[in-house]
Specification:
By secondary structure, the chain is mainly alpha-helical. Helix content is 50%, strand content 10%. The strands form 3 sheets. A 3-stranded antiparallel sheet has the order 1-2-3. A hairpin with a 6-residue loop joins strand 7 and strand 8. Helix 8 packs parallel to helix 12 and helix 12 packs antiparallel against helix 13.
Length: 403
């Protein structure tokens, strides 16, 4: 059944000025929804039989134009949804129209998404979206109050050229275009832009999919890191080395997950935690070296295993997010100092520990799927199909190849 649209003089409740609001009445499948068109009228100027202003109405032409535009807006949406064979109700029609009017420009929709991510505690995603927004703002010289229809293939090519002229790396360009595409897709979902304005079918961003140079060290280099005497070095040098070794020996655990570890994550000499990024449950044996590192930083007064968060200072998602970035930057800086001390060819970072874990196990003949069980995979939907069946014993056996 098609929806019916008509504007009525809503006489249920008069306004303070004695006039009545004009409301668009949407009816579909015996369900009704009323939405104001932003105008009111004295009842003596309204023809209640024909539902239109009388000839002597002072604002007759203005009201008629407003009614035509409002009904036309809803009719166009109904035609689009019907063509795409999408179900809708009076409520979803109104919410879609309101979203379009509220976030009809690119800058407003970006700000809406960033705010939504921050409120949901997805600060990493918010940072990526903000980075994309800042780049687009510079490209448009702070004139991003444009419609999504403006972003066509020619526009995207000009943006690409601008990025290249500013010496933007391929990997960064890939991230920027993937983020823009994701935002465009969300605008499609909310009906802010139509499918026929979608530019990413013709403009392929796969050309930017250049793999980041993988960095891993071998076992000999790893042993040098573990055995080098750093007793005369400052605290953060030693702490950074311990974080690197702990990450490597604990399934390539990333820094954010390390920062959030508490005593509750240790059970029967096993490390059990949910990845912050994917909420995937990880269970690994704690090797003796890891137990020593945990013991080294143990503090009954502190909730967390490592001295990264202060429970009294870092309470909110934003505070913990900022703290992680600050400490991680410091750790990576000190890891590079260790690289120089040992004269390693590869500058050390926490990412190197994660990749080294995977690389050494792979070279030892360990099943890649078991490695993925510990690391997490870029295509989680695919790997999850066969990873859930692995038993702890299989992972435990694989971990013996690390040393």
């Amino acid at each position: 059944m098609n929806a019916s649209l008509e504007v009525i003089c809503y006489k249920v409740r008069p306004l303070k000025n004695g006039e009545y609001p004009l409301m668009l009445r949407i009816t579909k499948s015996r369900k009704r929804k009323y939405v104001s068109i932003g105008m009111s009228i004295d009842e003596k100027y309204w023809d209640f039989k024909k539902n239109k202003p009388k000839r002597n109405c002072p604002n007759k032409e203005k009201i008629e134009n407003l009614i035509a535009n409002k009904i036309g807006e809803y009719n166009n949406l109904i035609i689009d949804l019907t063509t795409e064979q999408k179900e809708f109700t009076p409520e979803t029609l109104v919410s879609t129209i309101e979203s379009k009017s509220k976030f009809e420009t690119v800058d407003l929709f970006y700000k809406y998404l960033i705010d939504k991510m921050i409120k949901a505690g997805k600060l990493g995603n918010a940072d990526v979206c903000q980075y994309s927004f800042d780049s687009l703002s510079r490209f448009t010289k702070n004139k991003l109050n444009i419609s999504f229809q403006t972003i066509d293939v020619i526009w995207l090519k000009r943006y690409e050229e601008w990025l290249r002229n500013n010496d933007c790396k391929e990997t960064t360009m890939s991230q920027l275009f993937r983020t823009l595409r994701s935002v465009f897709n969300k605008a499609l979902e909310q009906g802010i832009v139509k499918q026929d304005s979608y530019p990413f079918n013709a403009y392929k961003i796969s050309k930017f999919n250049t793999s980041t140079k993988k960095r891993a060290i071998n076992k000999d280099e790893l042993m040098k890191i573990m055995q080098v005497d750093l007793s005369k070095e400052r605290f953060y040098i030693n702490f950074s080395r311990d974080i690197f070794v702990f990450s490597y020996l604990s399934g390539g655990i990333n820094f954010t997950d390390i920062a959030n570890l508490t005593k509750e994550n240790i059970s029967n000499n096993r490390l059990e935690y949910k990845r912050q990024k994917t909420t995937k449950l990880i269970s690994l044996p704690l090797l003796p070296n890891c137990l020593e590192i945990i013991s080294k930083y143990a503090d009954d007064k502190r909730k967390y295993l490592f001295p990264i968060f202060d429970e009294n200072k870092h309470k909110t998602h934003k505070q913990r997010h900022d703290r992680i970035h600050k400490v991680l930057k410091n750790v990576n800086h000190n890891l590079k100092t260790i690289s120089e001390i040992l004269e390693l060819k590869i500058p050390l970072t926490t990412y190197v520990a994660r990749h080294t874990f995977a690389t050494i196990l792979k070279r030892s003949g360990v099943n890649i799927a078991i490695i993925s069980e510990s690391l997490g995979h870029s295509d989680l939907a695919t790997t999850q199909i066969y990873l859930d069946s692995f038993q702890n014993s299989q992972i435990d056996e694989a971990m013996k190849n690390l040393l």
